[in-house]
């Protein structure tokens, strides 16, 4: 199949500095060797607890944070080696929507200016076309096109997220990286925004990377799901397969916390012991071994390989090797 985005062995280490000389004494390994591909038009969900490296990964793909190493190939071009100006150009194709739309909207800009700005920065369209696009996009995201003179504070959280989505779409991107786009919203509003994203995807042929800590949200929108733990890949497969047949013990624990609609189909809740280890001092062997309910001797000694155990179903766990 075609590939829109290919990420290969992506790493982001943040140096830890100490003392007057600010010497590097270690690294926080936020993203520690992540690889995946995204096909045009699909949604890849990326899940894990906070601190698992999801947001750093999202920002590193766009080089809002520079990666330590690895390849990020968009339509065959390695964006990691692009010049700053070529990267700015590339960002037109890959836009990000953040969790907190309020923090990412300039409070002194009207909604009209908020949406016109990216098109002006990228020298896209004529002034008349830009105005027309603003009205069209507001309508597309379910807002009144007459809202252009209002300011972000006049809107609810859900409306602000619609504005954030409209702004990302002004420059006509192919890929949207959605970083916990509904996490800050009420549950009733969450489903409206998810429906909107789903409609926009069908309508505009968009490709999504959808980052979330909530598996039920991810299930709804994703074609495939990548589970991350402590900056590492734990499991990657089709969304239906992941929910029907989770292999990695961490995925099983995450799934056990998702409420099931059918009360007879009771699932036992798996409570993980201990806290997420520090990514500055990750465990040897399998990064999950300190909390894994079925850890074996080998798990603290050897890093499990990332293996395709069935067609399209990959997992990093000694249970399957
Ligand atoms: Fe658990 Fe071992 Fe599998 Fe890691 S490799 S998830 S510790 S069984
Ligand atoms: Mg879809």
Give a brief outline of the structure.
The protein is an alpha/beta fold and 321 residues long. It has helices at 54-61, 84-90, 101-104, 111-121, 127-140, 157-169, 187-204, 215-221, 239-244, 249-256, and strands spanning 5-18, 23-38, 43-47, 69-74, 77-78, 94-97, 175-179, 207-212, 224-229, 232-238, 306-310, 313-316.
General description of the model:
The protein is 30% helix and 25% strand. The two termini are 27 Å apart. With 321 residues, the protein is an alpha/beta fold. Helix 5 (127-140) packs across helix 6 (157-169). The longest helix is centred in the middle third of the chain and has 18 residues, at 187-204. The model has no long low-confidence stretch (mean pLDDT 93). It has one domain (5-93, 173-320): P-loop containing nucleotide triphosphate hydrolases (Rossmann fold), CATH 3.40.50. The protein has an 8-stranded mixed sheet with strand order 6-7-8-3-9-10-12-11, sandwiched between helices. It has a 4-stranded antiparallel sheet with strand order 2-1-4-5. It has helices at residues 54-61, 84-90, 101-104, 111-121, 127-140, 157-169, 187-204, 215-221, 239-244, 249-256, and strands at residues 5-18, 23-38, 43-47, 69-74, 77-78, 94-97, 175-179, 207-212, 224-229, 232-238, 306-310, 313-316. The chain is built from 10 helices and 12 strands. Iron/sulfur cluster is lined by residues 248-249, 286, 288-289, 292, 294-296, 299, 304, 317-319.
